[in-house]
Amino acid sequence: MFRFARSVALAAALVSSTFLAGASAQTMLTEKKTFEMPSFTTQSGRALKSVKVGWESYGTLNADKSNAILICHFFSGSSHAAGKYKETDAAPGYWDAIIGPGKAIDTNKYFVMSVDTLVNLGANDPNVVTTGPASINPDTGKPYGMDFPIVQIGDFVEVQKKLADSLGIKKFQLVAGASMGGLQTYEWAARYPDMVARAMPVISFGEADANLIAWLDIWASPIKLDPNWNGGDYYGKTPPNAGLASALKVVTLHAQHWDWANKTFGRKWAKEGENPANGHDKRFLIEQTLDNAGAARAKTSDANHFLYLAKANQLFVAGGAGSLEEGLKKIKAPVLLIHSPKDLVFPPGGVDDTAAKLKAGGASVEQIQLKGDRGHLDGVLSMKQVEENIRSFLAK
Question: Strands, DSSP E only, in the chain?
């Protein structure tokens, strides 16, 4: 049997927003920067004051500002895509396997940037800067709570666009991202086709289909069932961390594949000598591990931010169009579409449908399948296996 301590360590690995995806021998150090806007108007038409997001960059922007690449992050992630903040960090950014000196996305050649989204999940993480429901509304002096406007994937893109404008960047050599980062990639390519030379959406579709909309509702449900959520009014009170931890537990399992679950845990008990048949407090290892994972992640997350992210994902259709076909027709850039055949969040059928609609709309599309048992998470953890495909795509 696994000992309980091992399950705790695995739980921490499961929920870290900086998944170790292949650290380099020589650590690339980075720092979190803050981009501030005096005001920002959302897609809903609501104006926000004093908006802030964090961002990171790797490599150097050249004189004519033509070597920029944008990386967009996933639902539970942040702008920490590569490198470390300090040498002693436990793990580098989540795509460190492919971003760095001499890697597929070579920071000796490219200026790579990544931005914390509005309503970022890690609102309580000191390495995340994000305006959202937990932020103070300048007009009231109190947290926004659920008075914060509904935001969409297009809002995340518009904030990134304003940052790019402030840096004088007119075009990205590549826009890429995994999961929710893939949604942002599609939105960028459809919304600003002349600014995107290449698009690399990973483990994602061109829209949120009915299955994903339903799953996002299931993800969010434990938060709303926690009495401490109180309709989103919990700042300065007891936060709904039990519901948030349960929500993150669901997300953690959904992002995996049953092959991983069965191979990693089987029917092992959480503690030696404590047979689950002998009481409801006696558990299987996978149960305890997922509980630990959710609880660990909840410590740096915010429940309302989770709900706003879920809504933003549910509302997504590329280009803000009435139909997926209409939105994808706006995309001019060649597309490298990377996905996992074992993905339970964005299953392969939806990926194939998006690819077919991209081709019908005139886009050049190359599809690459990842190998592995991690399901959706292979788009974060297994990217090194497609580094030559990425390198070739950038060379075209």
Answer: 33-41, 47-58, 68-72, 99-100, 105-106, 111-115, 136-137, 142-143, 174-178, 199-202, 335-339, 365-369
Mean pLDDT of 303-319: 98
CA dihedral angle for residue 302, residue 306, residue 309, residue 310, rounded to 10 degrees = -170
| 3-state SS, residue 369 | strand
340 catalytic residue (yes or no):
no
**How far is it, in rounded angstroms, from Cα 267 to Cα 277?**
12
Catalytic residue, candidates 114, 376, 378, 382: 376
**Cβ neighbours of residue 396 closer than 8 Å, sequence gap 6 or more:** 198, 334
- Residue 18: pLDDT over 60: no
Q: Which of 125, 302, 343, 373 is catalytic?
A: 343
Dist. CA 333–CA 365, nearest whole Å: 9
Question: Is 4-395 assigned to CATH 3.90.950.10?
Answer: no
Cα 367 from chain centroid? 21
Q: What is the pTM of this model?
A: 0.94
Q: How far apart are CA 370 and CA 257, in angstroms?
A: 13
Strand partners, 317: 207
- Domain residue limits, the chain: 4-395
Catalytic residue among 179, 204, 246, 340: 179
73 part of the active site = no
**Among candidate residues 286, 209, 296, the one with its CA nearest the CA of residue 253:** 286
Q: Give the pLDDT band (50/70/90) at residue 25.
A: low
- CA-nearest of 162, 124, 164 to 48 is 162
